[in-house]
Amino acid sequence: MLTLTILIPMLGALALTVLPSLGHATARIIAVATSTLSFLLLLIVWYQFDTSSGAPAFQAYAEAPWIPALGVFWRVGVDGMSLALSLMSGVLFIACIAWPMENPERPRAYYAWFLFLESVSLGLFMVLDLLIFYVFFDLSLVGMFFLIGRWGHGDAQGAALKFFIYTLAGSLAILLAIIGLVLTVDPITFDMRALIAAQPLAGMDLRGGLILLGFVLGFAVKAPLFPVHTWLPPAHVMAPGPVSAILAGVLLKMGTYGLVRIPFQMMRETFADYALPLAIVALASILWGAIVALGQTDLKRRIAYTSVNHMGYTVLGIAAAGALLNGAEGAREMALTGAVVEMVAHGLITGALFLIAGGFWARSGTYDMDAYGGLAKVAPRLTTAAVIAAFASLGLPGLAGFVAEVQIFVGTFAVFPVIAAIGLLGILITAALFLRLLQQVFFGDLPKAREGFADVSLREGSILAAILALVILIGIYPRWLLDLIGSASSAIIGS
Question: How far is CA 182 from the centre of its chain?
């Protein structure tokens, strides 16, 4: 089932590549249908997933040999964390594929690259072989590189190149760390489950520290964390809105997911030794992302820097969860659950924000917030969507962001109380920057140049409504998501 879920978008991409003379509308319909079919299979997996305490950590498992001599197999399976991220990714890919193209050139190739990226993204979250994980991690760079470089605007090729170089450097650090990790196991295996059980680097202080550094550096670039985040703002500004939504909503989560799945789970002792420095880096990302975002006048750059801020929250929860091998299990489990909920919530919320920002470019050709004002008078549906997404991002109770952040900070206070207390300042700054954004763009006087600003279309409004409905659902009734993610957190902390 999981293999088919990964394979279907790739087959759809291949079909769009080889089928001649497909019009824009037909290509979009094929792409949306393909992505939807893959998502429906995911829903079946979710329906069959067992969250009870005695259930296996990884379910829907399947394997097939690939390079047996190296212990490399096609291994797929999901726990509550990977399934939640896969479901969120499926929602975003359907939404972004269905969203109108900003640059309607080469639609077949555009939708084919989206489906390719969906396939490798789902594969990364579901695969349980370390080498194949790395393959999917690298292939995600390729898909995003072409989507930014070919369909972006401004210096899109320069932004795509910077993105590729930064993230490729990070992936090389991960590759070196993977090699260092598997060479400690006899016989060599890339089976993630076996490596989690073996804890091969236990007691290897120096070697373990260097391997951990490779993983943390590589995943920090992808997340991104301060100070290796500088590729992110130009990539977002130059990318089309739907591409930015996938970049923020899905690709950034590869970094935080990888941080949990590999060094957290496979190097528990070493991770615990360096949890405090990682928490400090997370705190720096929280404050830096929020403060710099507050100073931006470019709408997309402001939203982009809030991703640095929110990924800081996520990593703070991960660091707190991994800080102690014994004691405070409940608080650590809560912190990890909150971190994963933050990944899901941020994906949906920021995905919606970047789709909204893309609508600004499509209508006016600028992200300069000084060029707008009073849009609530002419675009009430767009305003409503932006207000809900902004309030969710700043952590207002009743919305998804609050559910995530309250668990992160409650859990972190039990482990790193000073860092948690300082980190709360990030929430205040985030509230200020989003409230200022709403006031400046949607309220006040309407410039004469924006009197003809079009509200969201039926298709755009339906897509935003679906995403934001999930944000509200998680905020008012999070039990269904917490049960899923909590089953993974309990297994990870308790193992």
Answer: 27
Q: Which residues share a beta bridge with 298?
A: 368
Q: What are phi and psi of 130, to 5 degrees?
A: -65, -40
Q: Is the pLDDT reported for residue 406 higher than 70?
A: yes
Q: What residues does each domain of the chain span?
A: 2-494
Helix (H, G, I), strand (E, B) or coil at 324: coil
CA distance 223 to 225: 6
Backbone angles phi and psi of 65, in degrees to 5: -65, 145
DSSP per residue over 108-165, as a string?
A: HHHHHHHHHHHHHHHHHHHB-BHHHHHHHHHHHHHHHHHHHHHH--SSHHHHHHHHHH
pLDDT of residue 451: 82
Backbone angles phi, psi at 199, to 5 degrees: 45, 60
Query: Looking at the chain, how many residues does it have?
Result: 495
Q: What is the pLDDT of residues 200-250, one digit of tens each?
A: 887 677 888 899 999 999 999 988 898 888 888 888 888 899 999 999 999
Q: How far apart (Å, rounded) are the C-alpha atoms in residues 422 and 272? A: 21
Render pLDDT for 336-386 as a digit per residue (tens, 0 to 9). 999 999 999 999 999 999 999 998 988 888 888 888 988 989 999 999 999
Distance between CA 146 and CA 235 in Å, rounded? 12
Q: What is the DSSP string of 244-306?
A: HHHIIIIIHHHHHHHHIIIIIHH-HHHHHHTHHHHHHHHHHHHHHHHHHHHT--BHHHHHHHH
Closest CA to 266 of 367, 193, 173: 193
pTM here is: 0.95
| Confidence at residue 83, expressed as pLDDT on a 0 to 100 scale | 97
* Alpha-carbon torsion angle 110, 111, 116, 117, nearest 10: 80
Cβ neighbours of 183 (radius 10 Å): 12
Bond before 187 cis per omega within 30 degrees: yes
The half-sphere exposure of 334 on its side-chain side, counting CA atoms within 13 A, is: 16
